[in-house]
Amino acid sequence: MTILSDRETAGEGPSDSTFDSLAPATGRVLASYPVDGPEQVHAAVARARAASSAWGALEFDERRRHLVAWRSLIARRVEEFAELVGAETGKPRDDAVLEILLTLDHLDWAAKNAKKVLGPHKVSSGSLAANHAATVEYPPLGVIGVIGPWNYPVFTPMGSLAYAIAAGNAVVFKPSEYTPGVGRWLADTFGEAVPAHKDVFVTITGLGDTGAALSTAAVDKLAFTGSSATGRKVMAACATNLTPVLMECGGKDALIVDEDADVEAAADAAVWGGMSNSGQTCVGTERIYVHVKRYEAFVDALTRKASDIVAGESYGAMTMPSQVDVV
Fold it and tell me: Is 79 a residue of the active site?
C-alpha cells in the first residue's frame, strides 16, 4: 500500500521516491511512504506557518477544547492505534496500549495547564516603577519542528507535540523512518478532530535527509529525540540558522540496589527496566550496582523473575536487526 503525504493530497509536488515501513518480526511490507526532500519539507513548513496565525490567536480555552477533542478521538480508537504501533515497532499489544495511555496523559496535561503556565500573570514592577503594573506572558513561537524516535514513537514525541500545540504553535513532525505510519496517524486524527485547523499539525516522512532538511528549514525551534551521534548532526544543522533546539539523547543507565533495599521490588524493577520494549529504552536498566550484603539474594530474585519472561508475550521483536547487537 502506498500512502500519499499530506502535501500531496493538498496538491503540492510529489516526492521522487518512496520507502517501505516493515513489520520487524517478518520483514513484511506494511506500507510505502514518500521520501520528502527539501522542497516538500519547506512547503510543509509554509503550510504550518500559514495555519499558525489563526491557531495562535485562539484563547487558551479554545485550544484546550480542540485538544481534548483530539485526545477523546485517540482514546476511542486506542485498539486501532495500538495495532499500528505494534505492527511498526514489534511491541506486544499491551506495551503499545500502555504507551498510548501514557500519551493521553501528556495531551491532557498540556491542554489543561497551558493557560496556567503560559498565560498572563502579574509580577512585581520593582521599586523604581512602583506606580506601574507589570505582567508576563509567553506568546507562541510560530512553527516547531519535531523529529521523533522509533522506540516510543507516540509517547516521546507527544512530549513536544502536545505542549507546542497547546502553547499556540503549529508543528511539522518528522517521525522515524521505522514508524512513519504512527506519525501519519497522529496528524490525520488531529485533522479529523480539529478540521478547521488541520494544518497546525503537518507530518513529513522520509529518511535522514528529510530530518536534515527540517533542521535547516524556517522553523522557530526544533525538538529532537534520538542517538547522541544524530543529535550532534541535528544541532550543527540548526546552528546554521541559529534555530533553538531541544535535545533528548541517549545515555548509559544504572540501577543501584543499596543495603536497605527491598530485594524483590528491586529485582522487579531491574527485569522491567532491562527487558521492557525488548531493551530498546533510553532509560532502560543497563547496569546494576548491588551492595555486597544483598548481592546473592538479589541475583537469586533476578534470575527467578527473568526465567518467567516469555518472548512474544513479555516482549516483542526488535524493531530492526541492528538492535540485537546494541541491546
Answer: no
User: What span, in angstroms and rounded, lies between the C-alpha atoms of 199 and 12?
Assistant: 14
Element (H, E) at 289: strand 287-290
Closest CA to 87 of 166, 37, 162, 25: 25
* More reliable by pLDDT, 281 or 142: 142
Of the residues 12, 39, 249, 282, which is catalytic? 282
Give yes or no: 80 in active site.
no
Q: Count of CB atoms within 10 A of residue 155's CB?
A: 20
Terminus-to-terminus CA distance in the chain, angstroms? Answer: 32
pLDDT in tens, 186-207: 999 999 999 999 999 999 999 9
Tell me which H or E stretch contains 171.
strand 170-174
> Checking DSSP bridges between strand 254-257 and strand 287-290, what pairing results, if any?
parallel
Who's near 93: CB < 8 A, 6+ residues apart?
Answer: 82, 83, 86
Please report, as a single letter, which amino acid is at residue 137. E
What does the radius of gyration of the chain's CA atoms come to, in whole angstroms?
22
Please pick, among 8, 248, 249, 286, the residue that the annotation labels catalytic.
248
CA distance 193 to 214: 26
pTM as predicted: 0.89
Interatomic CA distance for residues 198 and 77, integer angstroms = 19
Q: Give the model confidence (pLDDT) of 132-182 as tens digits.
A: 999 999 999 999 999 999 999 999 999 999 999 999 999 999 999 999 999
